[in-house]
Design brief:
Helix content: 10-25%
Strand content: 25-35%
Radius of gyration: 17 Å
Distance between the termini: 5 Å
Oligomer: single chain
Structural class: alpha+beta
CATH topology: Deoxyribonuclease I, Chain A
Largest sheet: 6 strands, mixed
Number of helices: 7
Number of domains: 1
């Protein structure tokens, strides 16, 4: 049985609903996890998703900031919203679906960006990011016996040298500093997660999912980072059939600075 799931930091779902519709019409994943929806739950454009067959919609929204949404062709058995760091931000949404006889828990996450200064003593945004990643260590792929798990989203950290355009130049830049990358990899290990993108794509291959708006020609400069991730429980890895990064979406009209990433499975 084929199954596909996508993640995309859309940077305002209402502003870019046309891009989302285009993506869903072209790729039609079973499930789509969106981050930075930037709207309250009642403002979310549900009608557009239902028109494309995504009848099942779980929301954790916030006015003007953050926000995550999971839309699915398959019904949800359960919906959980976790308040990381107890600050009231809408950054996590957990759902559970059934694919044939398999049950899958899906965590949709938006990790704080962390500001510009990688010093938690003078930058409270960076401290918040580090605290969030520390709390992420308690999110386990093995939390529910008999249930597989996925963790997707904009984790705002590029952990490996081949996840950034220049390892040397970005070592002191937020998203690739050692304290962040080590923290994320520790959370991955503690939670028994498999990095499905790197499970499928060789480590020596450069992989980006984000390109800054600051570049006049993002494709020519190609100074990207892999900030968007798809992790899975170990039992899912053997069933992974492909990872697709829709880099061309960065050139669509009024794009997000992130592009969609799709994981495909055969169960």
């Amino acid at each position: 049985m084929p199954f596909s799931i996508a993640t995309w930091n859309i940077n305002s779902v209402r502003l870019r609903i046309g891009l989302v519709e285009r993506f869903l019409e072209e790729e039609a994943p079973d499930v789509l996890c969106l981050q930075e929806t930037k709207c309250t739950n009642d403002q979310f454009p549900e009608k557009a998703f239902r028109a494309l067959g995504y009848e099942h919609i779980a929301l954790h929204g916030q006015k003007g900031y953050h926000g995550v949404a999971t839309v699915s062709k398959r019904p949800f058995e359960d919906i959980v919203r976790q308040d990381f760091c107890a600050v009231g931000d809408a950054r996590h949404l957990s759902t559970r679906i059934r694919v044939g006889e398999r049950r899958i828990r899906i965590h949709n996450l938006y990790v704080p960006a962390g500001g510009d200064e990688p010093d938690p003593e003078i930058n409270p945004k960076f401290r918040h990011k580090l605290d969030f990643v520390e709390e992420l260590r308690r999110v386990s792929a093995e939390a529910e016996p008999g249930v597989s798990a996925l963790l997707l989203g904009d984790l705002n950290i590029a952990p490996y040298e081949t996840d950034v355009w220049s390892h040397k130049q970005l070592l002191k830049i937020v998203s690739h500093t050692p304290v962040e990358t080590e923290g994320l990899l520790r959370a991955q290990a503690d939670g028994s997660w498999v990095d499905l993108m790197r499970h499928h794509i060789p480590m020596e291959e450069v992989v980006f999912t984000w390109w800054s708006y600051r570049a006049k020609d993002w494709a020519a400069s190609n100074r990207g980072r892999r900030l968007d991730h798809i992790w899975g429980s170990a039992d899912l890895a053997p069933h992974l059939s492909g990872i697709d990064i829709r880099a061309e979406a960065r050139s669509w009209e009024k794009p997000s600075d992130h592009v969609p990433v799709i994981a495909r499975f055969g169960f």
